[in-house]
Write a structure and sequence with these properties.
mainly alpha, about 625 residues
Length: about 625
């Protein structure tokens, strides 16, 4: 309390603002998946960005900040070239690329925003760390609540909605908490931060995210090795001399810590072995996805398949269903290779090289305890990067932004060179402002459109709570009217066509003749944009059979069968069509792994059907 009383008002306001932003970004209303999807929170996020932009502009003008060169400036044109080439080379996936491009540009804007802030206000670094640790505490508390109310101890998701994303957050948080242990000057503070670190590590272990475990080991190993190098203890002889000088109590504590660490590693190894027994975490899942990425890269090695198009092309090499569709390759280099080809890999390699070069430079600029303190910022970057060899959790904006913050903290923007001309710096600041204004304008526009789409989904859900019973068509018609307006304004958005097709198919299942033709038309448009979606080919086939076009139905079901050869349902249905059997729903055992998890999560939540009832009720979600 005494510290707060002695803190200047401006400093306190900055601390409060940073804490609120960090808490918001990792909350369900911020940049987690729910926050990105729900229109109300999208508008709130745009408002928060606008407030931050205004505050930054006022501070820049008031304190006459100078614009400094960023350590990643040389690689930005290469990234833009790779992205542009991948989008132009794949016009059929352009709509997906435009969605991803907004986020990519926003991340670039966030990088420069934070770089400029910390270059001119290095003292804000500590406030950002405190804000992140506060947000991390919120995430840990909700993990505990999850265990309490669900009784589940493993694969915790907390506020992230995904155990791997939660693991990445904790990989960044743990070294920052250990830094507080290192800095603590009294026993009480040290005990509190030790407890925080221990709970965060335990939470990470309970996520059962093996990639995150490896990332944490890499982060801690980096931390230990760099500290030993800093104090000149990498040499066994010098380390032995230093060790002999330690007190008996210190050596006993070090021995106890090594025993505890060994037990933790043994438990982690046992958990890794156990995790392979879980169907959704079996070893073959990663190799299947990586193989799909290599196939996509080999088909378009120069510019790739298009930004954010990995999930679109996944069905070419995986039998989806019963395999689950994934939006990324679970390996960042492979994902970049599949989507942006050699150009993207070159940009990624240059980024890593420039980052290593920058960290090497900061290492030699810093001395003494200042360098030791900085090492704790390098560890999260290494852990974040290593984890992304086994997952691409940065697909979640909250995780991507957390990684950007960690990288900015490690790169020490205050050591960057200023532009020689004040005019050049002003131009850069104005450019960043215009960039964010354009992003906000586009964001608000898409929020309005998304709000209309969500309303259509809610109308669909209101009449689809029990798909086995007859459903009133009125709400379906209302939803379809809304979707028709959305399709007219944005005809290249695949999900609008898919949603419309399913609704028309459900009307056709209820006996409405118009639903057959309109459903065939909507599925046709969707499959022009997403040609590897096996379930939609099967749904199209049953509507074509209803229309009396037997040959077209057989061709569509053959296409579904070729894309998903491991699904018995399609083989049985194709046999029926070839032998001119009447349409009859197939009864097969229900399993969460034998249905097609749509890539559009909100659609799956709004309609509890994946396959039309003309195919099978037993394959619907229970």
């Amino acid at each position: 309390m005494q510290n707060l009383k002695s803190m200047p008002l401006g400093r306190f306001s900055e601390r409060l603002a940073i804490a609120v932003v960090c808490l918001y970004l990792l909350s369900p209303f911020g940049t987690t998946f729910n926050g990105v999807v729900i229109p109300d929170t999208q508008a709130l996020t745009c408002g928060l960005i606008f407030a931050a932009l205004v505050a930054w502009s006022v501070l820049r003008i008031r304190h006459k900040w100078r614009w400094r060169r960023s350590s990643l400036d040389p690689v930005m044109p290469l990234w833009l070239l790779a992205i542009g080439a991948s989008m132009l080379a794949n016009p059929e996936a352009m709509r997906r690329g435009l969605i991803a491009l907004w986020f990519v540009v926003a991340y670039i804007g966030a990088w420069y925003f934070l770089q400029d802030w910390l270059a001119n206000r290095p003292c804000s670094k500590e406030l950002i760390v405190d804000g992140l640790l506060g947000a991390g505490l919120m995430v840990i508390i909700f993990s505990a609540l999850e265990m309490l109310y669900t009784g589940r101890l493993l694969q915790l998701v907390s506020l992230m909605g995904n155990s791997n994303a939660l693991g990445t957050v904790l990989v960044v948080i743990v070294p920052l908490a250990l830094r507080k242990v290192w800095q603590a000057r009294d026993g009480a503070q040290r005990a509190v931060w030790r407890l925080y670190s221990a709970v965060a590590i335990a939470n990470l272990i309970l996520t059962l995210s093996r990639g995150a475990w490896i990332g944490l080991v890499a982060a801690c190993a980096t931390l230990l090795l760099l500290l030993l190098a800093h104090y000149g203890l990498l040499s066994p002889a010098r380390f032995l001399v230093w060790w002999v000088k330690r007190s008996e109590r210190t050596r006993r504590l070090a021995f106890a810590a090594s025993v505890v660490l060994s037990l933790c590693l043994a438990c982690a190894a046992a958990l890794i072995v156990f995790s392979f027994t879980l169907n959704e975490r079996r070893a073959g899942l990663r190799t299947e996805i990586w193989r799909s990425a290599l196939i996509q890269f080999s088909d378009a090695p120069f510019a790739g398949q298009g930004l954010f198009a990995f999930g679109r092309n996944n069905g070419r090499s995986l039998s989806i269903p019963p395999a689950q569709s994934y939006a990324h390759a679970h390996n960042l280099p492979l994902n970049v290779a599949a989507e942006m080809g050699i150009l993207g890999l070159s940009a990624l390699g240059a980024t890593v090289a420039l980052t290593v070069q920058r960290l090497y430079r900061v290492w030699h600029v810093k001395t003494g305890e200042d360098r030791a303190d900085w090492i704790f910022f390098v560890a999260p970057v290494v852990g974040f990067g290593v984890h992304h060899f086994f997952d691409v959790t940065a697909m979640m904006p909250a995780v991507a932004l957390l990684g950007i913050v960690a990288l900015v903290l490690a790169c020490e923007a205050s050591h960057d060179r200023s532009f020689s001309s004040a005019r050049s710096g002003t131009v850069c600041a104005l450019g960043l402002s215009l960039l964010w204004i354009c992003l906000l304008a586009v964001g608000l526009r898409t929020t309005q459109i998304n709000s209309r789409y969500i309303e259509a989904l809610r109308l669909s859900l209101a009449s689809s709570e029990n798909p086995k019973q007859s459903k009133p068509a009125f709400q379906y018609r209302q939803a379809l009217d809304s979707l028709d307006e959305l399709i007219a304004s944005d005809p290249t958005m695949p999900v609008y066509h898919l949603q419309s097709a399913i609704l028309w198919g459900l009307l056709a299942a209820g006996g409405e003749g118009e639903g057959i033709g309109r459903g065939i038309e909507s599925f046709g448009r969707f499959l022009e944009l997403e040609p590897y979606h096996a379930t939609s080919w099967a749904n199209l086939a049953v509507l074509q059979w209803q229309s009396g076009d037997r040959l077209a139905a057989i061709r569509s079901m053959e296409r579904a069968r070729s894309l998903a050869p491991r699904l018995p349902l399609f083989a049985i249905k194709l046999y029926q069509y070839r032998n001119d059997d009447p349409i009859a729903p197939i009864s097969l055992p229900h399993s969460r792994y034998n249905q097609d998890f749509t890539r559009y999560q909100y659609l799956t939540e709004s309609l509890p059907v994946t396959f039309l009832p003309q195919i099978s009720w037993s394959f619907q979600r229970p």
